[in-house]
Write a structure and sequence with these properties.
The protein has about 950 residues and is of the alpha+beta class. α2 (about 320-330) packs across α3 (about 345-355).
Length: about 950
């Protein structure tokens, strides 16, 4: 076997760099493995070991270029330095999978936990050469099978890697030594309680000294040195000290994440040991339905984190990378991270401490907890206790959940939380996120309730997010199935819960992929799924529209993000939300639901300053009963303000209402006084619209201090357009044929029942999460399948829109029009043909769809609209859309350039459509027993 050694120079540099801490011998470098030569720290994927990816590739997730599942043996020689002689030794692997260790052929032991470091106490070793063998096991049998669908293990995001990550080497220290330190701050008592576990091989006396100071704030605060004589017995010794923090300790929060560093030294005259601990002065709790941090109410503006790191396939192990991630998130208003069924490395919590991010971590489970599942329960409870021991000092570690969308024995969950609380009261605890899909409502024993609904109830009365899969809520929930407004909220739902409610996985709005991002994938994962979707576009001759599809669906999704977030902000006493997601989720069927890509980089859809306007500590809010108005109606807009800054808010709100052409403008100022942690009405805007004689989009801009927000609304003339000069019919009958043969203009409004097989359902909101997955779930549950569309796409300069102003994508004036339509499948038209109002299909199906399209049939001109105009005739936008269609059909600009014969037209409306067989990935959540109760 090839012999491998650590260089003496490398070792000496490492020892010098850590002279004030414990001596440490890095084991990083070249190793021999059972798969080939590799570099550690690292993974088999990064070392290009394992099974090369082969076609056919899947569309359900990114593809590992070198996958491996099983046991891998890593070995090398190392030289133990002279300075390690007589010291206690410990091998540290900061993050790995189940492991077994041998030193010089002797078995040292095994560990099977996932989150905390694997720390092996080594036998006494003489200075000189030794041989180390490590076996790392990421096979299906290495952990309970229920763990393997969690984000701590699944290939859907971070991959089921094999290897060793982070800090890796041998630590040397004398006895007695500091084994554990926990710091329990008390803001109310202005002190910190420090518990110390000291290990000694022999009875002795020692001195504990503690020095501390704030280190990341502009304010200097040095703590008085604390010293204490202690007496040690052989074995483990526990001590508790109280450290005064002075009259004005610096507090930790998202606004001022002040950290104190403690240097804790142990000296018995013969040996010395030292530990450095960072902590923050904060007290986190609840008051009725709200979270309270240091006596200030907070609202969690959160994002879901599923360990999406495509270059490495695992979460970063360094603080600076995480700090950059959190800085990006905070620019979009995020103050909270919820880790879906996994807990990140300590580097994430260190970075969150510095940047001021509130973390919820979870045990690695997405499934069921049952009392008789002893092996799983033992595994999970051990992980939970290790999380508290290893990460408990971090002020950013605010909340712990048992997993994602769990079901099973509530009594067992309650017992676990009681045990965790007895161990550590610095955090809040919940049974899991969205357990039982929310149908069973809040349960006694948890501190807060993360859910999509607060139990079953009539309609949407219990919902705390605005969008759902069709299988989980009628017609996909509030945003798709209720008339758009900015007055509704979740107050009725949270009234059913005595503790804070956090909206689970909000904002799941699909965005068409930006295929240019494929070039970014230069690591262990490759987006063959995106290549397949791009090729499907080419097959259906839509590839030239890829950029437009991405742009339109992206801009429309932002409008839906804004609506979803503002539902939460309009709810007095709401706990917060956890959006899914700010970034793309490349697994579980390829859920491209982020305004940022998988690399946390902008898609060019919205700048962070605009997004921050409706996702910030202070947000001025408009209360609009509708987005569409007639110019004969008086316009009433209520103005409220959501204040989760640190103090009361009294800065006036300036408003401006202006038309797109700038010719009509109104403005004013509203005084406000909103207590900290509250939502309060500030005033009203009342205006006449009779000065607007043509269809207009208006923009309402709100500003208070540095905070700002905006709204679009549409105003239409109160008038009717005659049908004179146009023949209107709903059937392709002999009358229509005759009119077209004479060169007349026909408006065809096909009956939906006649085009059912040649069209898809009408839908307003972008398809939820991933079409393939929820199509399969809906079919298995015997429920309606989502129509699966994502937005309209049109040219705002087209003459049709002279009388119906629009952008290229869907917006609120399209709500009734798209919901009452059946987008026609136009795959059989010429490959270059584009409808006037196109509808963007999902990436799995990729139909060419349209709700307004036109042809020249012989000498005649045909305009087709698949919206039921009669169903929307009494709405301002419905009447105006009809007016726009009629005026366009009468105009000289109505000159269709695509010619069809009558027979070709009939075939378009009668031929069967070739459908792709679409099967979704398995989802661990149980939708079978509770859906639509």
């Amino acid at each position: 076997m090839k012999q491998l050694f650590l260089s003496l120079a490398t070792m000496l540099c490492a020892l010098c760099a850590q002279a004030q801490e414990r001596a440490f011998l890095p084991l990083s470098g070249i190793w021999e493995s059972s798969l080939g030569t590799c570099r550690l720290p690292g993974t088999t994927d990064e070392n290009k070991l394992g099974n090369p990816a082969q076609a056919p590739y899947v569309t359900t997730q990114l593809t590992r270029l070198h996958s491996y599942s099983g046991q891998v043996t890593y070995e090398r020689d190392f030289t133990l330095p002279e300075g390690f002689a007589g010291k206690k030794l410990r091998l540290i692997m900061e993050r790995t999978k189940p492991s077994t260790l041998w030193i010089d052929g002797d078995s040292i032991g095994s560990f099977s936990h996932l989150y905390a470091p694997h720390c092996y106490e080594l036998p006494s070793l003489k200075p000189g050469k030794h041989h180390i063998v490590l076996r790392i096991d990421n096979s299906e049998t290495s952990v309970p099978k229920e763990i393997q669908s969690s984000h701590a293990w699944t290939d859907a995001t971070q991959t089921n890697w094999n290897g060793i990550l982070g800090k890796f080497g041998i630590e040397a220290y004398d006895t007695p030594y500091i084994n554990k330190v926990q710091v329990y701050p008390s803001v109310s008592e202005k002190c910190a309680r420090i518990t110390l576990e000291v290990w000694s091989d022999y009875p002795c006396s020692a001195i504990v000294s503690i020095q501390g100071k704030a280190w990341n704030t502009p304010t200097t605060h040095v703590l008085p040195t604390f010293e204490k004589n202690i007496t040690l017995q052989q074995g483990a010794n526990s001590f508790t000290f109280t450290l005064g923090m002075g009259e004005s300790p610096l507090l930790w929060s998202e606004f001022h994440p002040a950290l104190y560093g403690l240097d804790i030294a142990l000296n018995n005259g013969h040996s010395h040991d030292q530990q450095h601990i960072d902590f923050g002065m904060r007290e986190f709790g609840t008051e009725n339905t709200q979270f309270v941090l240091n006596d200030k109410k907070i609202l969690l503006r959160g994002k879901h984190d599923a360990c999406v790191f495509p270059l490495t396939g695992y979460a970063p192990m360094d603080v600076e990378t995480w700090r950059n991630i959190f800085r990006i998130a905070k620019r979009y208003g995020i103050n909270h991270y919820r880790c879906h069924s996994y807990t990140p490395p300590e580097a994430a919590l260190k970075a969150a401490d510095i940047e001021g991010i509130y973390f919820q971590v979870e045990l690695p489970l997405w499934g069921a907890i049952q009392r008789n599942n002893i092996s799983l329960n033992t595994f999970l409870k051990r992980e939970g206790n290790m999380i508290l021991d290893w990460l408990g000092n971090h002020p950013s570690f605010m909340m712990l959940g048992l997993g994602n969308e769990l079901h099973g024995d509530i009594d067992v969950m309650r017992e676990w939380l009681d045990e965790f609380r007895r161990k550590d009261l610095r955090h809040l605890y919940c049974f899991g996120s969205n357990n039982n899909l929310g149908w069973q409502g809040p349960q006694d024993g948890e501190d807060f309730f993360v859910t999509c609904r607060v139990g079953g109830g009539e309609g949407y009365s219990t919902h705390v997010r605005s969008s759902f899969a069709y299988v989980d809520a009628e017609k996909g929930g509030i945003l798709n199935n209720t008339r758009p407004n900015t007055t509704a909220n979740y107050a009725q739902a949270i009234a059913r819960c005595p503790r804070p409610v956090v909206g689970h996985e909000t904002c799941q709005f699909q965005i068409y992929p930006d295929f240019q991002q494929i070039a970014k994938y230069k690591g262990v994962l490759y987006p063959y799924n995106l290549e397949i979707f791009r090729n499907r576009l080419k097959e259906n001759h839509l590839h030239d529209q890829a950029e437009a599809f991405h742009r339109a669906t992206g801009h429309f999704s932002v409008a839906c993000y804004k609506a979803d977030i503002e539902y939460a902000l309009r709810t007095p006493g709401f706990g917060g939300f956890q959006m899914l997601d700010l970034q793309d989720y490349p697994g579980q069927g390829s859920a491209l639901v982020g305004i940022l890509d998988a690399f946390m980089e902008s898609k060019g859809i919205i700048d962070p300053e605009t997004f921050y306007g409706f996702c910030a500590p202070v947000v001025p809010l408009a209360r609009l009963t509708d987005f569409c108005w007639l110019n004969t109606q008086p316009l009433h807009i209520g103005i409220s303000l959501s204040n989760y800054e640190e103090n009361d808010w009294s800065t006036p709100i300036h408003w401006q209402l202006v038309s797109d052409d700038g010719e009509w403008e109104k403005q004013g100022t509203i005084t406000c006084s909103v207590p900290q942690g509250e939502l309060k009405e500030a005033g009203d805007i009342n205006l006449s619209l009779n000065g607007l004689k043509k269809p207009q989009r208006l923009t309402l801009n709100l500003r208070t201090g540095t905070y700002h927000n905006y709204y679009h609304l549409w105003v239409y003339p109160d008038e009717q357009e005659s049908t004179e000069g146009i023949y209107i019919d709903s059937l392709l009958n002999k009358q229509v044929k005759a009119k077209l043969a004479k060169g007349e203009t026909v408006l065809l409004l096909p009956r939906h029942k006649d085009i059912g097989k040649q069209s898809v359902g009408g839908m307003f909101t972008p398809d939820y999460w991933n079409y393939a997955m929820f199509k399969t779930i809906s079919e298995n549950a015997g429920k309606e399948v989502s129509p699966g569309t994502m937005s309209i796409l049109t040219n705002p300069a087209h003459p049709l829109f002279r009388h119906f102003p629009t952008e290229e994508h869907s917006d609120w004036q399209w709500w009734s029009i798209t919901r009452n339509s059946r987008p026609m499948i136009l795959n059989h038209t010429d490959k270059a043909y584009r409808p006037v109002v196109q509808v963007i299909d999902n990436i799995e199906r990729n139909h060419k769809l349209g709700i307004v399209f036109e042809f020249r049939i012989g000498k005649g001109k045909l305009l087709v609209c698949t919206t039921d105009l009669n169903a929307i005739k009494d709405t301002p936008e419905g009447n105006q859309f009809r007016t726009a269609l009629l005026r366009y059909a009468k105009s000289a600009q109505f000159q269709p350039d695509t010619v069809l014969t009558w027979e070709e037209l009939v075939r378009l409306f009668t031929e069967d459509i070739i459908q792709r067989d679409i099967q979704g990935v398995k989802n661990q959540s149980d939708y079978s027993s509770n859906v639509l109760m």
